[in-house]
Amino acid sequence: MNLKIKDDIVALLKESLDAIRNSNFGLLNEISSHTVHNSSVFQDHDSTSVAVLIYALSKVLPRASVDVKRLVEEKISSCVAELEKDNMESYRQCLKEVMEVIQATKEDIKQYFNEVLSSSEIKKASAIYYHGISIGRAAEILGSNRWELMNYVGKTRMNEETIAGITVEKRLAYARKLFSS
Questions:
Q1: For 166, phi and psi rounded to 5 degrees?
Q2: pLDDT tens, 14-52?
Q3: In this structure, are strands 162-163 and 166-167 parallel, antiparallel, or unpaired?
Q4: Domain boundaries, the chain
């Protein structure tokens, strides 16, 4: 793993821990969005996995019990420790265990978590696409279905409003400039 990516993931996981401890679940969503930016720049699976997990936690933890929140905190702390020691295999296993903690809870939360996890993968892949990465590559980074991603992106207005930060108006003005000479 790239050192910059590792340092950023450690910082984001620590920030997530603070948000969970303070029950600031809206902040988790913001943290997840920051991680998506890294995914689009570095196109790595680790940043993307963290983005999806943190986004899913932002949706599920408000409904979870205090015990589940405590277990999630403990597991994320362990993930940070493993990552800081460069134990990549243990770190990745630890992330899986965070998901397992949620999935081992009540049936309604478990089902909700699985639905949120699935939809968050598509949502985060679309955010990577929004950053200028192709749909195929965005789907590949997240391990999601390209057709589901195309369907989701097609239903949003993001591709009409801006692509890689360039508005429709700017693209149209550039095209007119090309053909007017």
A1: -105, 125
A2: 999 999 999 898 888 888 777 766 666 666 778 778 887
A3: antiparallel
A4: 3-180
